Amino acid sequence: MMSSYSKPKLVELFYDVISPYSWLAFEVFCRYRNVWNINLKLRPALLGGVYKGAGNRSPDEVPRKFHYMAADLLRLGSYARVPLRVPAQPVNVLMAKGSLEAMRFVTAVAEKETGGDAQVEKVSRELWMRIWSNSQDITQLSSLAEVGLNAGLSDKKVQELLEMSQSKAIKDKVWTTTQEALDYGVRSGWDHSLCTRQ
């Protein structure tokens, strides 16, 4: 007699908190991982590096894409029950500020965490909430410290992770993961954000 239980498939989600489309994918995968029988592995990367490596242009560089994106996000956020709101100054958020420091912080959390991605999930969600729901900063170390505390990390742990996020090892890891995303075929922030393996 064959068992009806099948081994969960590994799904790697490459994402950057600067991308609202990544947030939508993230929340849907987190919400349905048990229903879909998947083992979700969160892979923080840099969307700017993906765009550059793929020779692609981000929505803020293409006015028609950008205008469509604003309306699209409201529809998709409502449909997926994700509290998406376009930031007060979206071009400043996307182009001038970016997410480099935030993604280094998430990568430090990922490197330090053992036995799953629970803390990575909480920290990532807090960052998305700040930028795409509450129109708050994610670039200053004080903002990242607040994110860590809101995600349930101790003050000592937050300080350790902030220091770790500035190390060469973490900086290299962010770029390595971004290159892996490109190698898998990721070309933008939402069309091929994941990879499945048997």
Automatic annotation (TrEMBL):
Gene3D superfamilies (alphabetical): Glutaredoxin
InterPro entries noted in UniProt: DSBA-like_thioredoxin_dom, GST_Kappa/NadH, HCCAis_GSTk, Thioredoxin-like_sf
GO molecular function: glutathione peroxidase activity; glutathione transferase activity
Coiled coil: none
Gene Ontology terms: biological process: glutathione metabolic process
Keywords: Transferase
Pfam family, one: DSBA
Catalytic activity entry: RX + glutathione = an S-substituted glutathione + a halide anion + H(+)
The enzyme's E.C. designation: 2.5.1.18
Highest taxon in the source lineage: Eukaryota
Positions annotated as active site in the UniProt record: S19
Domain DSBA-like thioredoxin, first and last residues per copy: 11-187
Gene Ontology cellular component list: mitochondrion; peroxisome
Protein family according to the UniProt entry: Belongs to the GST superfamily. Kappa family.
UniProt name for this protein: Glutathione S-transferase kappa
Protein source organism: Alosa alosa (allis shad)
